[in-house]
Amino acid sequence: MGALTTSPALGSDHSVRYLPDETPLPMPPCRLDGSTDAKPARQRASGAVAGRRLFIFGGTIAITAGGAFEMYDVLKVGGVTVLEGMVLALFVVLLAWIAFSFMSSLAGFFVLLRRRQDVLPIDSHGPLPAITGRTAMLLPTYNEDPHHLTARLRAMHESIGETGHAALFDWFLLSDTTDPDIWISEELAFLELQRNCGSGRLYYRHRSDNAARKSGNIAEWVRRFGGAYDCMIILDADSLMSGDTIVRLVHAMEANPQAALIQTLPIVVNARTLFSRLQQFSSRLYGPLIAAGNAWWHVSEGNYWGHNAIIRMKAFAQEAGLPELRGRKPFGGHILSHDFVEAALMRRAGWGIFMAPALGGSFEEVPPSLLDFAARDRRWCQGNLQHLAVLPARGLHWVSRLHLLTGIGSYLTAPLWLLFLLLGILISLQAYFVKPEYFPKGFALFPTWPAQDPVLAAWVFAATMGLLILPKLLAYLVLLTKRAERQAFGGGFRVLAAVMAESLLAALIAPSMMIFQSTAVAEILLGRDAGWQVQRRSDGGIRREEVYRKFAVPSLCGMAMAASAYAVSLPLLLWMSPVIIGLALAIPIGLVTSAPTRMARLFATPEDNLSPAVLTQARELACLPRIEVPGALLALWQNPGLLRAHMESLEPPPRKSQWIDVDLAIARAKIEQSDSFQEVVASLSARETFAVLKHRVALEQVMRMQ
Fold first, then answer.
1. Which value, to the nearest 10 degrees, does the dihedral of the CA atoms of residues 506, 511, 516, 522 take?
2. Are the C-beta atoms of 249 and 262 separated by less than 8 Å?
3. Is 570 a member of any domain?
4. How many angstroms separate the CA atoms of 14 and 19, rounded?
């Protein structure tokens, strides 16, 4: 974490400017029941694009139909019962999901073999192009570590400076932080960043009311400052982009006036635990294949992932204002997974949404443990299920609707898989305990043997697993054709061993994720809101008690499945062993995967072996001594310069309000009853301290105390 340093005092000569002059840009909420009136030229799919989509969907239908026919052959012996009919229906839905993903991966395989990105050509290796437009770099944050946040921001700022285009970029740290100590730490870190960068183009804004979360944070900035910029690049708290990539993205927007958004493919970096190492390796090896295939058939109807993307300001402000959904949470209220919807709304107006999977220079991090991943997934699950209300919106492109449907399906498939397994056990139990009818009603010379074909069932299972595993092998084959990248991974044999190890570990982890996602869907359907939790980005650091408690349900599910299968027959237990083993070992898997791994070298990626300059710089800056805040109020009390800057940044209070801030009222009562500054600090809760920090009069009263 680096050595600890106290918060530096700000001299009276230190000029602080948190925000530039406002340049408002209207951003009205859109209507889901009516499309926009003012539209640029509609982009119609060419014959080539139609052929690509016919390849994807034709292949999906062919694979699904073939699998459904074979599965029917497995079940039809003795007639298809109600339970078997349900299994067949679930199998068709789940196989279609797998086949669709496989066809996109197959398309990506051929695209990468051709080594030509023809959707939106961006030269990623030639000289840097000239750009003219102004771009805002937006970094929304919510209770994140300010030290690492500003380290990444400084690395990107310096990388842009090396391109010679720094004057065309303004940087905004947009805070929705509610923790008072982190808020003041952010201000200190920002002031230190301003001092180190010597730039007047770095800005900081703290929003006192974080309505609509990240989407509301960005929309509020657009309405206040968006008029001064042609484009904006949206970052996440863990995002990192090279200056070279940023400049090429801006040039691509200027060269393609029909484009509203270009999404990069972020590469996962800085993984330390076994779980995050698996995510980093798999996304680095398999991700480009999947992304290339999707970009190939999406063309101008691509998608947006919420960060590491450039957006045309005009298109976003005119078309992507999000409405509030009717009803109560979790389905109603502000749209949580805003990115898919924003892309769909801009495409509805005729703008192009593109992906640049081959650009490079775009990075992100992943949660360090399976539990952290599941917690983030819980929020995403609720946001994606909200899209059920967006699907019927008028005027959406059919591919945009498919993106929304795919996001919904990515979570609904988990309970469907669980139901599929449970029905399989029920069918086996039924066959074991219910006496079969060998001679059905009517005349028959020979008995009917009501038994499924185990050999054919094994072939169907093997073919289904093949559709899941083959994309990984295709990605490996593509890697073998790229000598430099293969060597950067550590060699072909090492990557092959890593693919095998990753596939095995992923198979063990998948059953627990199935239970977590099924639980999340059930909670949402029961009306439970996920809230807005802080994402853990450390090395894991999970207490054993937390692992035992949260993995207890998957473990019990595994034991129940094992007992049910064994009650029927040992072959059924062996047949279901891949799922049962993953569930029964959920607790040890959770412990092992959340700890730093000795297998780091096996799962090493090119960014580990040959770190890009901006990534190296961010890591070095993160190792510098961090500024520690002794407490929000104490830091302001001890640092007059920081206090002055904080006071100047506060938003003016509303003239009239229909509601009373209870936390502020309690805080002011405690202030009146306290005799000293130390007594006030000791008596205020975190929520009350936060209320004081954003209220000028109350804060001045505290600061005057001795």
1. 140
2. yes
3. no
4. 15
Q: What is the mean pLDDT of residues 135-157?
A: 97
Confidence of residue 660 (pLDDT cuts 50, 70, 90): confident
The Cα 675–Cα 698 span in angstroms is 15
Rounded CA separation 400/406 (Å)? 10
The confidence score (pLDDT) of residue 209 equals 87
**Predicted structure pTM score:** 0.93
Residue 538 pLDDT: 65
Contact indicator for 563, 588 with CB cutoff of 8 Å: no
pLDDT in tens, 264-283: 999 999 999 999 999 999 99
Task: List the structure tokens of 78.
Answer: 């003795």
For residues 630-641, average pLDDT? 94
Coil, helix or strand for 317?
helix
Domain extent, residue 652, equals: 632-704
* Listed residue (167, 168, 175, 109) closest to 141, CA to CA: 175
pLDDT, mean of residues 438-462:
62
pLDDT at 68 over 90: yes
Note the pLDDT of residue 544: 92
375's enclosing H/E stretch is helix 370-386
Percent helix, strand and coil across the chain, each to the nearest 5? 60, 10, 35
Whether 186 maps to a domain, the answer reads no
pLDDT given at position 622? 96
Phi/psi region, residue 596 (left: phi>0; alpha: psi -120 to 50; beta: rest), is beta
CA distances from 60 to 95, 104, 291, 292 (A): 9, 9, 18, 18
Type of residue at 122 = I
**H helix runs in 387-491, sequence order:** 398-433, 454-480, 483-489
Of 55, 241, 80, nearest to 615 by C-alpha is: 241
How far is it, in rounded angstroms, from Cα 43 to Cα 58?
A: 23
Number of domains in the chain: 1
Inter-residue contact 424 to 562 (CB < 8 Å)? no
Structure token pair of residue 383:
């946001």
Contact 309, 264 (CB under 8 A): yes
Q: Considering only CA atoms, give the Rg of the chain.
A: 28
DSSP string for 258-310: TEEEEEE-PEE----BHHHHHHHHHHHHHHHHHHHHHHHHHTTB----SSSEE
User: From CA 309, how far away is CA 265, in angstroms rounded?
Assistant: 9
Is 230 within a domain?
A: no
Do residues 371 and 520 make contact, with C-beta atoms less than 8 angstroms apart? Answer: no
Length of the chain (residues) = 706
CA distance 482 to 472: 16
End-to-end Cα distance, the chain: 34
Q: Convert the pLDDT of each residue in 338-395 to its tens digit.
A: 999 999 999 999 999 999 999 999 999 999 999 999 999 999 999 999 999 999 999 9
Tokens encoding 195 = 């001092």
Q: Could you tell me if residue 691 is inside a domain?
A: yes
